[in-house]
Automatic annotation (TrEMBL):
Pfam families xref list: PAF-AH_p_II (PF03403), Peptidase_S9 (PF00326)
Protein name listed in UniProt: Prolyl oligopeptidase family serine peptidase
Keyword Kinase: no
Keywords, ordered alphabetically: Hydrolase, Lipid degradation, Lipid metabolism, Signal
Domain Peptidase S9 prolyl oligopeptidase catalytic: 175-239
Signal peptide extent: 1-20
Presence of the UniProt keyword Lipoprotein in the record: no
InterPro entries per record: AB_hydrolase_fold, Peptidase_S9_cat
Species annotation: Lentzea sokolovensis
Length: 371
């Protein structure tokens, strides 16, 4: 009976959420090499990156896989482990899950650009839902895997490059943020070669966790980025061995629009009025010279800002306590709608100059505007 049940579970796949924008979405992956930069994690090699581009497209083509087969096989023991989902390996057919985005020709037009940086050691694939949804609202969205920091990156030819971070000390965390900023700046420079419709005169950047720190620091170092979002991320590279080391954006602020979008950790919250998780948001707030807002998702947990928000509720084997610690207790569909609407509204306001009232009064379940 146990063997039969394992076989049934292994055949199960997940259903990705429907897109909320008016456009169908196309997608492709690109392999980039920065011939001017040695890889900080492997100095004998040039820096290589994998990125995924999502864009408004014609309604044709096959749905793209959420995870490639090789990467899915490599990540399954990690995703399923007690440190994450705490389910038996093989419970989910990760490679069988399909995105809403397709292998499709782009729609004509010039579309504003948003670059996205994932959490520390996290694959870019874990943010495909958010990227595809924003693309469906009329954006070229580029998600980036930060090679040799990300737990695993799949390159052409089924080559896997594993993460090489050995510790979370301050020197390592500083190397990680500096590398990420250089990665994002390089990707923006390469984008016109990848998508003719990418309007690089209108550029946003967003990121989750350490990716939120990456968004702020990239803006502090490159004026091509017009607006940014930090999604639930401390803006420091203090690491495990201190002392307090906030980023340049925290110390100096930014003169362009920046949104803080936080969640909860138990009874504590990440906001500029609560310093129990990090003091960086509180330190950033008075120094920020451009447009700013602090939006909070009550009862939403840290990894609920990734594709775990829609995938975990579909996996019945995940223990209830583990599920709540990963994605919170807020209704999953409500959390997704709030995240998608607020991210799109921010970039619509600052890249498309479309008005919105979402930052004047909370209109979604779980959303609170922090004064």
């Amino acid at each position: 009976m146990q063997l039969l049940m394992a076989a049934v579970l292994a055949a199960s796949t997940l259903v990705t959420p429907q897109l909320s924008g008016p456009f169908a979405v196309g997608t492709f992956d690109a392999h980039l090499t920065d011939s001017t930069r040695a890889d900080p994690w492997q100095p004998t090699k040039n820096r290589e990156l994998m990125v995924t581009i999502s864009y408004p497209a014609r309604r044709t083509g096959q749905q793209a896989p959420w995870l490639g087969t090789t990467l899915a096989t490599a990540l399954d023991p990690i995703i399923s482990s007690p440190a994450y989902l705490d389910i038996p390996t093989g419970t989910v057919d990760w490679a069988g899950t399909r995105r809403q985005a397709r292998d499709a020709r782009p729609l004509p037009g010039r579309w504003p650009v948003v670059l996205f940086s994932p959490g520390l050691q996290s694959p870019r694939e874990f943010y495909a839902g958010a990227a595809d949804d924003l693309a469906s609202r009329g954006y070229v969205v580029v998600t980036v895997s930060h090679t040799h920091e990300t737990v695993a990156v799949e390159f052409p030819g089924n080559r896997i490059e594993w993460g090489l971070m050995q510790d979370a000390g301050q020197a390592t965390m500083k190397k990680a943020i500096d590398t990420r900023v250089a990665d994002m700046r390089f990707v923006l420079s390469e984008l016109p070669k990848l998508h003719n419709g990418a309007d690089t005169s209108r550029v946003g950047i967003a990121g989750h966790s350490y990716g939120g720190y990456t968004a702020a620091e990239t803006m502090a170092n490159d004026r091509r980025f017009d607006a940014g979002i930090n999604i639930d991320g401390a803006m420091e590279h203090t690491g495990d061995d201190g002392p307090y080391a906030p980023g340049k954006a925290v110390i100096e602020g930014l003169d362009r629009p920046f949104l803080l979008f936080g969640g909860d950790l138990g009874e504590r919250e990440l906001s500029h009025v609560d310093t129990s998780l990090t003091r960086t948001w509180a330190d950033f707030w008075p120094n920020q010279r451009g447009w700013k807002r602090d939006v909070h998702l009550d009862d939403g947990a840290h990894l609920g800002f990734s594709d775990m928000q829609w995938s975990v509720p579909q996996i019945g084997a995940v223990p209830t306590e583990r599920r709540e610690s990963l994605i919170g207790t807020i209704d999953s569909a409500a959390a997704l709608k709030a995240q998608h609407d607020y991210v799109a509204a921010f970039f619509d306001l600052h890249l498309k100059h479309r008005g919105t009232r979402l930052f004047e009064r909370a209109r979604h379940e779980g959303i609170r505007l922090v004064p």
